[in-house]
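> call design_seq(struct)
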């Protein structure tokens, strides 16, 4: 069966704080190879069939707003410099209003289950709150674990 889209919203108040486990840190989109890093991560998590398709989506969705990339797209990096996760504090139209958008929250499969997801969501929501007072996200009914985590952060299903 085809997944059913689920939209959730948040007022960006009372954002739970989670610290990053030792050996990992956040950084912004900043390097020449970050488009490739993003494509590699979202392809490894099966959001795209291949990196070429992912790059095409990134160019269409994000590059028209290139100045925003450097303050809205974040990565998780290991102490050895490997880029292993990403999320975006983006924006979009929802119910005829421009809101923040929690977007493309992804961690490489080999690093899932290591306590990185909650700090990534927390950090991205903090970034959203710097630019917006409300936000939305889109997920799907097959992402039960993600929905559960989002609800713990105060996201409400619409």
């Amino acid at each position: 069966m085809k997944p059913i889209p689920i939209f959730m919203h948040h007022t960006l108040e009372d954002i739970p704080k989670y610290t990053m486990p030792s050996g990992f840190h956040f950084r912004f989109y900043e390097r020449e190879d970050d488009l490739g890093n993003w494509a590699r991560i979202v392809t490894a998590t099966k959001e795209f069939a291949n990196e070429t398709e992912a790059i095409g989506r990134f160019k269409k969705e994000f590059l028209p707003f290139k100045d925003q990339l450097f303050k809205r797209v974040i990565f998780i990096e290991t102490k050895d410099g490997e880029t292993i996760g990403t999320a975006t504090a983006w924006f979009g139209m929802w119910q005829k209003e421009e809101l923040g958008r929690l977007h493309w929250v992804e961690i490489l499969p080999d690093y899932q289950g290591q306590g990185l997801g909650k700090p990534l969501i927390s950090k991205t929501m903090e970034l959203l709150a710097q630019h917006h007072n409300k936000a939305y996200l889109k997920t799907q009914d097959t992402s039960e674990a993600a929905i559960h985590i989002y609800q713990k952060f105060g996201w409400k299903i619409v």
